[in-house]
Amino acid sequence: MTTTAVSPVLLLTAVVRRVERLSPSFVRIRFGGRGFEHLGPEGPTLDQRVKLLIPPAGRPVPTARIDYEGWYAAWLALPEPERGHLRTYTARAVEGEDQQRQLVVDFVLHGAPGAGFGGHGPAGPAGTWAAAAAVGDEVGLVAPRRGHEDDFGGIEFAPGADQRLVLVADETALPALASIVESLPPDSRGVAVVEVPDAADFLDVRFPAGMERHWIARRARPRGEQTLVRLRECLHLGPHGRPARDLPSLGPAADRDEDVWETPVHSSSGDDLVAVGELQARSGAGDTYAWVAGDSDTVKACRRLLVGEGGLSRSNVAFMGYWKHGRAS
Ligand SMILES: Cc1cc2nc3c(=O)[nH]c(=O)nc-3n(C[C@H](O)[C@H](O)[C@H](O)COP(=O)(O)OP(=O)(O)OC[C@H]3O[C@@H](n4cnc5c(N)ncnc54)[C@H](O)[C@@H]3O)c2cc1C
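Above: inputs. Below: predicted complex with flavin-adenine dinucleotide.
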């Protein structure tokens, strides 16, 4: 008997089924459509990332013209005016069965008039699209095929058993943090620090009882400033006052690292984390797992604070720059 290998990649045209304004800075969009019965992941979405292909204004989504095998190269090969923009988002939830199966995505309305605290940052194609989205609109979707999610990848949250959790997010990582905490066992312990543009953006998230939660409204203060202060307090790291750039360096490669994507198995700085982890494991500090995501500069500063000053092992962390100030994704 011959078996045909099934691709873990699902490439779909996603149709907007419902648009819900959650708060000044967030809009929740539910997507469905043909083929959604195959949408993964099967289990908790955690921080599952997916790719959205935003079509050029007034043009159709080019999904049908892209072969899912080698989809990225195929997309790049399209003529530029037809290509649109590829962006990364989080599956806040995957709900329903069969033809009713839907993907839920919470979009930050950065740059949109009326967004939290007067709009924040310049607009980009995805944020602009989400701000105007209506039922029936379409985007392309690259997501895991149900039952093949391990081969697709895209979930970074992977703590060990019984580890204390330190979770840090800005508004772009709040959907992932929310999805993570809502699937944790009820006896989970730790701390979550979430910085959003405004107090009106403190969304309804179900945390386990044993998790301290710290919501921060940024308002007019610099991005990440209050997150670092609160983290320092939560981890009992002594009085603050040092600017982020003066926190202990993790070395020149980590300092230069613009993308900031570091997990136990990968470092965008190129540091050998296996070696670093082994060294640190010998010095203890293994009972805490940190998951930190948001704008790259804040994530980098958190890494200095948690690893450089707090002594957290780099084999027990996921530090992820979800976007960078002044740079389109
Ligand atoms: C794994 C992963 C998961 C993500 N999940 C989500 C999610 O669930 N929801 C979500 O909203 N975002 C999420 N993001 C972030 C999202 O991909 C970026 O915000 C992306 O830049 C938005 O695309 P855009 O076309 O709107 O802006 P771009 O064209 O990429 O950027 C245009 C300009 O806007 C700036 N910018 C981008 N994002 C922001 C922002 N949030 N605030 C202020 N300025 C900004 C850029 O620096 C640039 O100057 C995720 C990113 C990653 C890597």
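The longest helix spans residues 296-309.
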